[in-house]
Specification:
Chain lengths: 453, 453
């Protein structure tokens, strides 16, 4: 190109790229939060619950938290049921030979040696699968489609994520030899989304995998042609018991140690396909940086504790959150919060609190007002890492809702890497959490039970 | 450019533009819904409540609805308090001379002849304005900033929209000679957002305008420099009483005329700056096309009525919705719905219904499931055009929530024009409404009172 045509082209490109999401271009951040996300993703990488990498992440976290000035830094290990990935591949063999991008779901069991070659039956919804008689899929593979849509509040993940969580159990009840689902995700890349499935105790676990959205589209179009589908499926991942996992906890002691503490949670484990940048190194980065920032102008009144939880991803109620409640359920807590929804901007706040704490909640709302963060109808639910301690102590909870419009593009995929973290949005999270902590960690009065029971 | 460099450039441009929102490129649609939006915006254009254009829109609507096969088409006129825009301009005169892009708010009163030259006091929030003593702004202009953020559920508009709705009343109480606000909008264009303000009965109305977001940014940066601000303000718009407005209603009669009807509302009036494409020609297009589509495979059981309401924008509880309830409050209604949030995709559904109608609500949810539309916590609230009839009859309500991420970029601005309507998203709205109507308009049993009281 000539210089002038190159320039014209560059200007056109610049004009068009103005609307491209921030994470399309990797950026370099700075500060405590960025250092944590950058450090975990660079020095540890993928860190499946029960794996040696998760152990290294605990050691990394304990060292980092000490270096940042936290006290009472503890690694609290526990044993857990874990799962390891094996070789995995799939291809349609009829009516058209097509390779498929697939990944196994956590707690999938292995296909037979040499792979499983079987007819595949297409179900447009989980309800369609539920409607067929028990035993009717004997020897076949069930394919479950769904229609998850990106939403700022991530609301598609609850209902359509059930295809992953419950679909394999239902398929097994129908006699299926294996199950393949459309990924619980909102992107259009050839990256399937992994994630845990939960086999009910009374069903036989079967091999279970997810194909990427473009592959699911292909399967749906093929099924619409009315000819029988067949698949050749290899998924060699399998569960293993008594794996080592653990939490890292650390305190910034308050001026009045007699006051119930504030606990801020995230999770240290990640899926293996990416490096767990948005899920959930960012959460650990946000809560840790905010705890420090809330004490920047002087020690806070109440102790702020961070909980970097182990095995959130495959814990199913028995992971790090449960272990924390078991060990610390008798220590008085006042408020629990968790960050586990990526690194995009906070836009909404939810509250679960005693009606008597309305003045405190109003102070928090006023602190968030100038940031454009609006109160939404509750209840706040915290998340998997604080669920057990909230339940044990009927704790007040504040949720700072992050923008989830792009979260399920990345969640549980190989694409969950550092370049997706926008340093400005990460810092906005820290600022929002800091604003909240400056209010609640300096509250001298009683913070009541939420009354959620 | 050479052919090959032009091609390379075009490919680059195409790759980059893949992420640009759909409405960046005007598209040509087809079908009933598109024809209505295209027709109203082309043949009528802006149609302020009480204006001759609003009258022409009623005639256009009645003719269109008859042509589409609706029956009992009626224009039901009423008198209303209206407002007309006059010349408007503003510039900062101190500390730096800067032109400002401004527009008057509905029910603003005129500035003195020759304009108002006065000191302007910056308030970062409505709360900051509320905090100053009554009378303290005598002779001054109050500027009210805020931090509205784009959200898919439009949740910033409630709280930050109060700056527009209540700010002028509060400024008047403080003695201000006029008030200027940051537009209740989320774009970064030099297009200020108009909209109605509501002067309390016990305060003196004052001139009230909104500057565009870039201008509000400039004012905030200037205020941060700590030097006194001054403005030269001209806003000549003013209210006028007893203006003609009116509703257009039309029915698609059901097979059983004894059953309570379904009413679907939108509003026909618009602000004057744009052509009211997304607010709310699209709403009228969506409800009308869906009513027809729901009868495509045979007459529905229940009568479906469309209400193209007059004076929604400046009605403040006394517009077309109130007039409809006055005339039709004794006719049995079963369900009310309204479309007045643009033309982007439906993503969420809310329900207000009797607990006894759970099976019916579940059927509606199941119809929306394959479209990726998820149920959200209620209550459904309908909107301004059905508020009065809902209240009068304690009606069941279904809200189909549209994606509002870009709505407040356009709302009440000159940019609310046809090119912003994505034909595919418009059709997705029609499909979602049709799916709901096929269930509820064919429900033979009693549809109960919502029990909202």
């Amino acid at each position: 190109m000539s210089t002038s045509s190159t320039l014209r082209c560059a200007l056109l490109a610049a004009a068009l790229s103005a609307s491209v999401p921030a994470f399309a271009t990797p950026q370099q951040g700075s500060g405590v939060a960025w250092d944590i996300v950058e450090g975990i993703t660079t020095e540890i990488g993928p860190r499946m619950a029960g794996s040696p990498a998760e152990g290294r992440a605990r050691a990394w976290g304990a060292e980092k938290l000490k270096a940042l000035g936290f006290q009472n830094v503890k690694v609290e290990e526990f044993k857990t049921l874990a799962w390891t990935r094996g070789p995995e591949s799939a291809r349609l063999t009829a009516p058209y030979a097509q390779p498929l991008a697939i990944t196994a779901l956590g707690f999938s069991v292995p296909t037979p040696k040499g792979g499983l070659k079987a007819e595949m039956v297409y179900f447009p919804t989980l309800a369609a699968l539920e409607a067929v008689p028990e035993g009717s899929l004997k020897g076949k593979v069930a394919f479950i489609d769904h229609a998850m849509r990106a939403a700022q509040d991530g609301s598609g993940y609850g209902p359509y994520g059930n295809v992953r969580r419950q679909g394999p159990t239902i398929a097994s009840r129908k006699g299926a030899a294996a199950v393949v689902i459309r990924s619980a995700g909102t992107d259009s890349h050839r990256n399937p989304h992994t994630g845990v499935t939960i086999f009910a105790k009374d069903v036989k676990p079967i091999p279970a995998g997810a194909v990427s959205n473009p592959d699911a589209d292909l399967i749906a179009r093929t099924a619409a042609r009315g000819k029988p589908l067949a698949i050749d499926l290899t998924l060699e991942g399998k569960p293993f018991p008594d794996a080592p996992s653990g939490n890292v906890i650390a305190d910034l002691p308050g001026r009045d140690p007699s006051l119930p503490i504030i606990v801020l949670a995230c999770h240290l484990d990640s899926w293996d396909l990416g490096t767990g940048a948005v899920d959930d190194a960012s959460g650990c980065a946000i809560v840790t940086a905010a705890a420090l920032a809330a004490q920047k102008d002087g020690q806070a009144l109440r102790t702020i504790r961070v909980l970097w939880s182990g095995n959130e991803e495959m814990g199913i109620g028995g992971g790090g959150g449960a272990h924390y409640a078991k060990l610390h359920g008798s220590e008085p807590h006042a408020v629990a919060m968790e960050s586990d929804f990526g690194a995009d901007n906070v836009w909404a706040a939810k509250f679960s609190a005693s009606p008597a704490d309305k003045p405190l909640v109003d102070k928090v709302k006023a602190a968030l007002w100038p940031m454009g963060i609006t109160p939404h109808e509750g209840p706040a639910d915290g998340g998997a890492d604080v669920e057990a301690i909230i339940k044990a102590q009927d704790l007040a909870v504040i949720d700072l809702g992050q923008d989830g419009m792009h979260y399920f593009d990345l969640h549980h995929t190989p694409d969950d890497t550092l370049d997706k973290v926008d340093p400005a949005a990460l810092q906005q999270n820290v600022d929002a959490w800091t604003a909240v902590l400056k209010v609640i960690a300096n509250e001298p009065g009683v913070i009541g039970k939420a009354g959620a029971k």
